[in-house]
Amino acid sequence: MVTYKPTNARYWCVTDLECTGLEPERHEIIQIARVVIDTVEKTIIPGLTTSEYILPTRWDQRDHAAMKVNGLTIKKLQAEGISAKLALEDFGRGVDWNETVLAAWGADFETKFLQDAFRRIDRVVPFTFKVIDVRSLGHLPRAKLGFTDYMGLGESCDYYGVPFDSSKAHDALYDTTKTAELALALLKLN
């Protein structure tokens, strides 16, 4: 059995998921995207960016409110989706997980869904407990100034000068790209 235990976190695999709801036990991932950043060079590594639509196997259990948010349809997923097994294998491929940690906007959501999805395909989760929540990182400088309200991804991007088009939100590739750009902007703060 392969176990990944990064001893450093030079690379962050910034991830976003679109799902059929909020509960991994009942709902499933229908789009997965990743953007890998180098925290030393403070750049995105373009060759490691991926995005896949996933064919749902529990479509009847979807949450209609969640589907309204992400706008994905069964027709699109059937036309462009691949199996969860292939998508998750692609997600894990090409990343040096010994030097990489998972990062996400609201990382708890991605962590729970990815752990459940890898378990369902009988594969080892490529990331360990070392996960970075970009939302919390974005809140820290504001908390130092006495601001207590959490902001959404678009609001945080605006606050830190990262361009954000809300009409493109809730596409996993767009959201993970913006989260990665925001993470880089935060890393460059003095």
What can you tell me about this protein's structure?
The protein is an alpha/beta fold and 190 residues long. The protein has a domain at 11-133: Nucleotidyltransferase, domain 5 (2-Layer Sandwich). Helices cover 37% and strands 19% of the residues. The protein has helices at residues 64-70, 74-80, 84-92, 107-120, 134-144, 153-159, 172-187, and strands spanning 11-19, 29-38, 43-44, 50-54, 81-82, 100-104, 131-133. Strands 1, 2, 3, 4, 5, 6 and 7 form a 7-stranded mixed beta sheet that branches. Strand 6, helix 4 and strand 7 (131-133) form a beta-alpha-beta unit. The radius of gyration is 16 Å and the shape is globular.
Task: Using brief descriptors, characterize the structure shown.
190 residues, alpha/beta, Nucleotidyltransferase, domain 5, 7-stranded mixed sheet, 7 helices, 37% helix, 19% strand, globular
Concise summary:
This protein has 190 residues and is α/β, with parallel strands linked by helices. Helices cover 37% and strands 19% of the residues. Strand 6, helix 4 (107-120) and strand 7 (131-133) form a beta-alpha-beta unit.
C-alpha-based Rg, rounded: 16 Å
Mind summarizing the main beta sheet? 7 strands, mixed
Mean pLDDT comes to 94
Q: What series of H and E elements makes up the topology?
A: EEEEHHEHEHEHHH
CATH superfamily of the domain at 11-133: Ribonuclease H-like superfamily/Ribonuclease H
Which spans of ≥5 residues are poorly predicted at pLDDT below 50? Answer: none
Number of helices: 7
Sheet/helix structural class: alpha/beta
Helix content: 25-40%
Total beta strand runs: 7
What is the terminal separation in angstroms? Answer: 42 Å
CATH fold descriptor of the domain at 11-133: Nucleotidyltransferase, domain 5
Q: What is the annotated CATH architecture of the domain at 11-133?
A: 2-Layer Sandwich
**Shape, per Cα inertia axes:** globular
The CATH class of the domain at 11-133, by name, is Alpha Beta
Q: Beta fraction of the residues? A: 15-25%
